[in-house]
From TrEMBL:
Pathway: Cell wall biogenesis; peptidoglycan biosynthesis
Name of the protein this chain belongs to: UDP-N-acetylglucosamine 1-carboxyvinyltransferase
Cellular component aspect of the GO annotation: cytoplasm
Highest taxon, organism lineage: Bacteria
The protein's enzyme class: transferase
HAMAP family: MurA
Catalytic activity annotation: phosphoenolpyruvate + UDP-N-acetyl-alpha-D-glucosamine = UDP-N-acetyl-3-O-(1-carboxyvinyl)-alpha-D-glucosamine + phosphate
Keyword set includes Nucleotide-binding: no
Length: 443
């Protein structure tokens, strides 16, 4: 496991191409199980999560090949609903979404309880409950969810809370089900609509009839397709925040402002300069940064994955900012390391907002904090940092780029899960980063 040595205080400047969306590509790879024909996905990011999903699909008997720099060829002609390793599922939460396609194609599936980032309890109860409405018999043996069905039957289902992955999984179950399915309180995230576009190009009949209602008429068979994965709005937001935090000037080639309007609006409110055109977005700090208040919400609200990087930017803003996390119950742990770097951040539990929390009440804990006050501006200083999860990893790297001195950042493998060639791209923008390999790797 290597670490990074990052010299802070260097403004990032130049142009960076935004890679394909991790959270779209992984679900599309799973959706390729729904057809015997070839599926070609372009703009797929070279990240470790994609490699893990590729290996998982191959375990199921699927052909997966890179057919160009960022293009995957997937053919699930002869698939086997075999149990894949718990160690594989522990690496990526999206591993669970192969369950619906396996049930549609094979009538059975055994899928481990998934893993992912350590940001609070993230149950799959909404996905499991949704499957039961299709007539699936499913039980949990302490490690695997075991499911069987003769044929999926269309149903009406309402999510009691927003569920991004749950909506995608429900759609994948419905496309080959007998009859019509209606999903109420369906997630509105752009990645969901990108998956819908892909499946419709394969012959599915899916329509979003209202912002949070999706109707699916099941078909007997899906065909192959060529589909381009949407740009990653999380990555685009990370680079946008990085430009402002380092007092730099970045052009985000390929970024779609329609996917990230809530973030861009808050950045403008904080004093950043944002210029969007048909090809991308230019981001600069502006004359000064001002404190702002943020509450994370499902799309089209302020995305939870932007929350942590945005807090770094707010440490450089004048005044007291308030950030309230409502999507995940334990996503503010990274602030302890920012405080060690000189930030002044206080965690607390405010009254529950009118919109409520998106997590299950039983998954909360008295040890979790849901909001932060950020006092600024505070100069950041270099420190030894340990990355605990993917988005906090990008956050600590931004902090190191802003800090005075050289920071040592370990746990970089978390960042490699979701950001394509991250270090190389940062260097191309002027960042001063060296990789430090462990002694045994250099022996």
């Amino acid at each position: 496991m290597h670490t990074l040595l990052i010299e802070g205080g260097v403004p990032l400047r130049g142009e960076v191409r935004i890679a394909g969306a991790k959270n779209a590509a992984l679900k599309m790879m799973a959706a390729a199980l729904l057809t015997e024909e070839e599926v070609h996905l372009s703009n797929v990011p070279h990240i470790s999560d994609v490699y893990v999903m590729s290996a998982l699909l191959q375990t199921l008997g699927v052909e997966v090949n890179w057919n160009g720099p960022n293009t995957l060829r997937i053919r699930a002609k002869d698939i086997r609903p075999v149990r894949f390793g718990i160690d594989v599922a522990a690496k990526i939460r999206a591993s669970f979404v192969v369950m619906a396609p396996l049930l549609a194609r094979c009538g059975e599936a055994s899928v481990p309880n998934p893993g992912g980032d350590r940001i609070g309890h993230r149950p799959v109860d909404r996905l499991v409950e949704g499957l039961r409405h299709f007539g699936v018999c499913i039980d949990y043996d302490g490690a695997y969810y075991n499911a069987t069905c003769d044929r999926l039957r269309g149903c009406e289902y309402r999510f009691n809370k927003n569920s991004h992955m749950g909506t995608e999984h429900q759609i994948m179950a419905a496309v080959l089900a007998e009859g019509r399915s209606v999903i109420y309180n369906a997630a509105q995230e752009p990645e969901v609509d990108d998956l819908i576009d892909m499946l419709n190009s394969m012959g599915a009949r899916i329509k979003r009839v209202e912002p949070r209602t999706i109707v699916i008429d099941g078909v007997r068979k899906l065909g192959g397709t060529h589909h381009t994965v949407m740009p990653d709005r999380i990555e685009a937001g990370t680079f946008a925040i990085m430009a402002a935090a380092t007092d730099g000037d970045l052009y985000l080639s390929g970024a779609n402002p329609d996917h990230m309007q809530a973030l861009l609006d808050k950045m403008k409110e904080a004093g950043c300069r944002i210029e969007a055109d048909p090809e991308g977005i230019r981001v600069r700090r502006g004359e000064s940064l001002r404190a702002v208040n943020v509450i994370t919400r499902p799309h089209p609200g302020f995305m939870t994955d932007w929350q942590a990087p945005f807090v770094v930017l707010l440490t450089q803003a004048s005044g007291v900012s308030l950030v309230h996390e409502t999507i995940f119950p334990n996503r503010l742990g990274y602030t302890e390391q920012l405080n060690l770097m000189g930030a002044h951040i206080e965690l607390f539990n405010p009254p529950v907002p009118d919109c409520g929390y998106e997590w299950n009440e039983k998954d909360d804990s008295p040890d979790y904090f849901h909001a932060a006050r950020i006092y600024g501006p505070t100069p950041l200083r270099a420190a030894n940092l340990t990355i605990p999860d993917l988005r906090a990893g990008a956050t600590l790297i931004i902090a190191a780029l802003c800090a005075e001195g050289v920071s040592k950042v370990s746990g970089v493998q978390w960042v490699e899960r979701g950001y394509e060639h991250f270090v190389e791209r940062l260097r191309s923008l002027g960042a001063r980063i060296e990789e430090s390999l462990p002694a045994e790797a250099t022996a």
